[in-house]
Amino acid sequence: MLGIAAVPSVMLAVGILAMPESPRWLVMQGRLRDAREVLLRVSNTKEEAELRLREIKAAAGVDESCTDDVGVWKELLLRPTPAVRRILIASLGIHFFEHATGIEAVVLYTPRIFKKAGISSRSKLLFVTMGMGVTKTAFILVATLLLDKVGRRPLLLTSVAGMILSLSSLGFGLTMADHSQQKLPWALGLCIVSLLLFVAFFSIGLAPVTWVYSSEIFP
């Protein structure tokens, strides 16, 4: 049964091999010739391809008359300006802290966390684990509606603040459940609510903003 999940992955991998690179990404890497070839393949006419290439070069800050490949990595890593250095630190930093918040540990070890909190039934463990997935999906959809209306920074700050409070209450609930000689219904309820809130706050801010921010700050 587990092996069946590999079939769509193999199909996707084969399909990706036939996909052209993104022209915008190629221009950002300084590969102008490759970008032009891709645009010629996906555009209706040569004139349309040249027009789109000029627009991409203008957005990326590349001289319109430049047709040869340029060294973007030197500008980014070897001799960055103070502005580019701040951009690089911000982009790498937000990706680091997205994972340092512990989202992978919470999601992957959800059954073990709930078991430690006092849930022993497999059916109940499966039910609350499914609730985590539904919560994450629902709040990702909410985030897509709020990103452009509320803004990246407010969502990010709200997300991080909520995750701090959620993990703190989760730690308190697990500590009380672990040191008690009998089951504490309120501690179990606190752990469940804390985990759902943690995933919700992550999904509404840090999860989508990290990737949107990275794609926007370099251009």
Automatic annotation (TrEMBL):
Domain Major facilitator superfamily (MFS) profile per the UniProt entry, residue ranges: 1-219
Main location group: membrane
Chain segments annotated as transmembrane: 87-109, 125-147, 153-174, 186-213
Transmembrane helix listed as a keyword: yes
Keyword set, alphabetical order: Coiled coil, Membrane, Signal, Transmembrane, Transmembrane helix, Transport
InterPro entries in UniProt: MFS_dom, MFS_sugar_transport-like, MFS_trans_sf, Myo-inositol_Transporter, Sugar/inositol_transpt
Gene Ontology CC annotations of this record: membrane
Listed Pfam families: Sugar_tr
Signal peptide (UniProt feature, chain positions): 1-18
SUPFAM superfamilies: MFS general substrate transporter (SSF103473)
Residue stretches in coiled coil: 32-59
Example of a GO MF term: transmembrane transporter activity
Locations listed in the record: Membrane
Membrane-topology annotation of the record: Multi-pass membrane protein
PANTHER family associated with the record: PROTON MYO-INOSITOL COTRANSPORTER, SUGAR TRANSPORTER
Protein name: Major facilitator superfamily (MFS) profile domain-containing protein
UniProt organism field: Musa troglodytarum
